[in-house]
Specification:
346 residues, seven-stranded parallel β-sheet, two-stranded parallel ribbon
């Protein structure tokens, strides 16, 4: 019998790619999404790729009764992957209460319902943002690095949610949890049937870059070339979204098979390589043949200078490794941008 996994935020960028990989690995998926930042037709893309239409419920995880209805409608959910959250750093500074309400309430509701419906475990989407700017001796940053005070309400919701999970498990709740701390997810499915669909002007590098390359934006601003890095631009660990999706499948297998060593485990999910913004732009130009219009602009407030992951723990314990190159990621991101244009979406 196929095991059923509930994926909240399953029509979003990482959620949709993870749904594809879960289905491919033999799971049944139920997606819950309030469509606040995605569209229902993402389900069509998923179904085209896998040949299987995931179940879909348009429900807001903050609505306890509606969420409970999902557990009643689909008995036997074994695991949950919780992506549904507000995720724009800048917006969270302007609307902190919205961020705290959405991101905390939804997790609390899910945790409350898990024991009631005998759900074994949860995978929580966290972020390397919890490390802030790691001290030099902590680069590449491992899971053991100190957690730094969050720079934004968004970042704080990730930290607090990690603590909520820890506290709930400590209280004796009979569930297990795997916290995945993502580095910078980029790219799109190689079929270009699903990808990232930014809402308005993108805040993140890759969608802004591909929108500039296709002519939606005039110019990409590189935020700062005077950082203490070899070329002066910031350094990140850019991970291909399909690799990231597969990390969730590995983590879910660990949960449903009861192989976790601790009730709460934390894993970095990245490539282990730091790449600068300029290096990324050069790679994009090389692998797509497109010349990018960009200029150096002042630093962006709140940016981390350099961070990349030590991913040994995920490699060894989850038996998972990021296998795709930056070229793969950028080629698929570009293909996806062209598909959005073809479809008249943007
Ligand atoms: N950048 C530019 N120009 C742009 C956009 C970004 O130069 O138009 C630069 C940024 O200054 C940064 C790098 O590209 O140096 C990456 O920026 P992103 O906004 O794409 O990603 P961040 O690393 O700032 O943030 C991401 C996620 C957050 C998460 C964080 C963890 O968006 O959700 O990683 O570090 F919290």
């Amino acid at each position: 019998m196929k095991k059923t996994i509930l994926v909240t935020g399953g029509t979003g960028f990482i959620g949709s790619h993870t749904t594809v990989e879960l289905q491919t690995a033999g799971y049944d998926v139920v997606i819950v999404d309030n469509l606040s930042n995605s569209k229902a037709d993402v389900i069509d893309g998923i179904a085209k790729i896998t040949g299987v239409r995931p179940a879909f419920e348009q429900v807001d995880c903050c609505d306890y009764a509606a969420l409970e209805g999902v557990f009643q409608k689909y008995p036997g959910i074994e695991g949950i992957i919780h992506f549904a959250a507000s995720k724009a750093v800048g917006e969270s500074v302007e609307k902190p209460l919205m961020y705290y309400r959405n991101n905390l309430t939804s997790l609390i509701n899910i945790l409350e319902l898990m024991p009631k419906y005998n759900v074994k475990g949860i995978i929580f989407s966290s972020s390397c943002t919890v490390y802030g700017q790691p001290d030099p001796e902590w680069l590449p940053v491992s899971e053991a690095a100190p957690i730094k005070k969050a720079e934004s309400p968004y970042g704080n919701t990730k930290q607090v949610n990690e603590e909520i999970i820890q506290d709930f498990v400590k209280s004796g709740a009979n569930i297990s949890a795997i916290i995945l701390r993502y580095f910078n997810p980029i790219g799109a499915h190689p079929t270009a049937l699903i990808g990232e669909v930014p809402n308005g002007a993108p805040a993140n590098l890759i969608p802004y870059l591909t929108q500039t390359a296709i002519g939606i934006r005039e110019q990409l601003a590189v935020f700062g070339d005077d950082y203490n890095t070899p070329d002066g631009s910031c350094i990140r660990d850019f991970i291909y979204v399909v690799d990231l999706a597969k990390a969730h499948v590995a983590a879910m297998a660990r949960i449903v098979e009861g192989k976790n060593a601790e009730p709460v485990e934390v894993f970095n999910v990245g490539t282990g390589n730091g790449v600068s913004v300029f290096e990324l732009i050069n790679t994009f130009e090389k692998c797509t043949g497109v010349k990018l219009n960009y200029k150096v602009a002042p630093r962006r407030a709140g940016d981390i200078e350099k961070v990349w992951g030590n991913v040994d723990k995920a490699n060894q314990v989850l038996g998972w490794k990021a296998v795709h190159t930056l070229e793969d990621s950028l080629t698929t991101a570009w293909k996806w941008q062209q598909k959005l244009r073809e479809d008249g979406i943007m």
